[in-house]
Amino acid sequence: MRTMCQLITVLFCTLLCMTSFAYDFQHQFYSQGQQISLSIDSTKLLVKFDSTLSQQQLDSVIAGLGAIHSVISLEPPTRGFLPCSLQVMLGEGSWLDSLRSNPSVYLIEPYYRIEDGHPAYFSDRICVAYEENISRQYTDSVNAASGVLIERELFGMPNVFLLVNTPSSNKGIVQLANEYYALPGTRYAYPATGLRGSVFSYKVFDHYSYRQAHLKKIIGSFNEATVWDFAGLTNDVVVAVLDDGVTDHEDLPVARITSGYDFVDNDYNPAPHPIDGHGEACAGIIAAAHTNDSLQGTYPSTGMFSLNPHARIMPVRMIIEGGWLLPPEECAEAVTFSYLSGADVLTCSWGWCAILVGYDALPDAMHRAFNDGRGGKGSIVVFAAGNCGPEIMAWPGYDNSALSVGAVNLQDQLWAYSSIGPYLDLVAPSGDLCLKGDVFTLDQMDTLGYNPSTQEFCGEYVSWGCGLQPRNDEDYDCRFGGTSASAPIVAGVASLLLSRDSMLTSDQVYAIVCSCAVPIGATVPNDTFGYGRVDAFRAVLSIAHGDANNDGTIEIGDLTAVVEYVFLNGPDFFPSHLLGDYNCDGLVDITDVQLLIDYIILGIGDPPVKPCYQF
Question: Alpha-carbon distance 370 to 162, whole Å?
């Protein structure tokens, strides 16, 4: 290691050399010990004008610069630099010297491209890291001689600086980075990009996604910022579908289906009867695989999306072909089997339109699942409120151990068939009854299941296909509806919460799902809509506050992100601004910074408020 005297000597000589260089556009820089080659697009230029100019003055200045053809509106602005197209080639004539000397022009940079042809938007900053024994006196003297300013030392990274170029350096940003890189005691130096990184949201390209308005209603802004953009949603959650059976599908591969049981035939093959598709439809709403590759998404076989593409389905068959339920005691066995076999969530789109008394086994099994499932944290039990009309809620869905779910249309109006009452918890989007609905989901493959069907539903025969283009795809059910479709929507939302935080208790999940519903009605809760329409985005957001960098944990990166946002005009938080709101007051401010410091750095503070009902 060089002594400080040697470093100062070398520094002095280097500075002499640096000041003798002419303003130059260079064609390489160094990163991780490798030379990165650059090319220059001679038809464009990045120009940073005097920031005090009004828009009218700026337009006038640009019009007076004969070499500039126009500002490229489609290119993103880069720390105040405007990308401009040129009338002449970059290397022709002396106009570049006159541009540099124009008092309205602050800095100029070429339009670089890296080796693969992609643009490299360098602006006015370089990132320089020195060895830890290099003094601040040394670095300040280098900066003064180079004509650059310190923007800041990077948080938690001693002797790593962001430096800002000024006109007094008379150098381009790549040349400056190379000269800093050559200094003794430098670990690395490179031109920092001037663009904030793009936020890459989770995009879905499933071929029939345009048919799935009911799920789009609750996930966020489709293909912009959805619930799936929250970190931590890839963890394994098992959802038991207690119904008429579930089988594998091109959108629900066999690897995503766990071992289940058939309580109708008393065996371990809980596949549906050839004419049934009710359980398959429920499973599709919860866990159909997503296609998030745009190329694959151009083919019709890629199908539909679901609420939780990482959930696994446990098929539990307890509905006889034709839609008849087993007796309550045997349904109790199905519930018990589900939670004892590891189901985190149970979804039940069935019940009796009657107040049944003296049938204690089924409510008892539900209570045990709610209290004892998931190792004592409780399994989530979701029931359809019933298609019994306003007179009565279906039994046993109104039991206090279950989330009872009614049905609304896409305008948040209650369907006339949907049961209501004081035990209703919330509602979810659905369609009409008797295979006349419009909820798009899975059916059994090929000619099995509902579609196409000549079966009798609600007293009349139905003969139909989904009319899907470019082919009539028989593997999907486009006419599902009723509270049968609403319940698995809520079950899917619950599975997302447990995927993000497996330590949540059943009580907490129930409270979150209800408190995060979109309120409907003058008073909430009410007998018609409960707490309102379920909302997956709001529910997951409520347990994600404080995770500013959206990586699924609360750590130093979150503090850095909030510091940059509050003090340095740093980037906002994705997929929601409220990720940075540590203390749940609806603001991202210095208080959140202090709380993060207390919790992460000092170890004396409380974890972020969770759940947080700020939307």
Answer: 54
Q: Which residues contact 249 (CB under 8 A, 6 or more apart)?
A: 280, 284, 288, 442, 444, 445, 475
More confident residue, 268 or 92: 268
72 contacts 44 by C-beta, under 8 angstroms: yes
User: What CA–CA distance (Å, rounded) separates 496 from 310?
Assistant: 9
Does 76 score more than 60 pLDDT? Answer: no
CA atoms of 380 and 401, how far apart (whole Å): 9
Contact 26, 178 (CB under 8 A): yes
Two tokens at 488?
């698995």
**Largest CA-CA distance found in the chain, in angstroms, rounded:** 97
Residue 19: the pLDDT is 34
Q: How much is the pTM?
A: 0.75
What H or E segment, with its residue span, contains residue 191?
strand 186-193
Measured between alpha carbons, how far apart are the two ends of the chain, in Å? 55
Cβ-based neighbour number of residue 262 at 10 Å: 18
CB 162 within 8 A of CB 151: yes
Supply 126's token pair.
């370089």
Give the residue from 535, 489, 529 showing the smallest Cα distance to 512: 535
Residue 72 CA, distance from chain mean position: 31
Rounded to 5°, the CA angle 494-496-499 comes to 115
Structure tokens at 191: 């031109």
Q: How far apart are CA 388 and CA 402, in angstroms?
A: 18
424-307-320 Cα angle (round to 5): 65
Question: What are the tens digits of pLDDT across the range 182-228?
Answer: 999 999 888 887 655 556 788 888 888 888 999 999 999 988 899 99
Report pLDDT for 117: 62
Q: Which residue has the tokens 């828009």?
A: 55
pLDDT of residue 373: 97
Strands 403-408 and 380-384: parallel
Rg (CA), the chain: 31
Q: Both tokens of residue 491?
A: 């079950």
Q: Are 545 and 581 in contact (CB under 8 A)?
A: yes
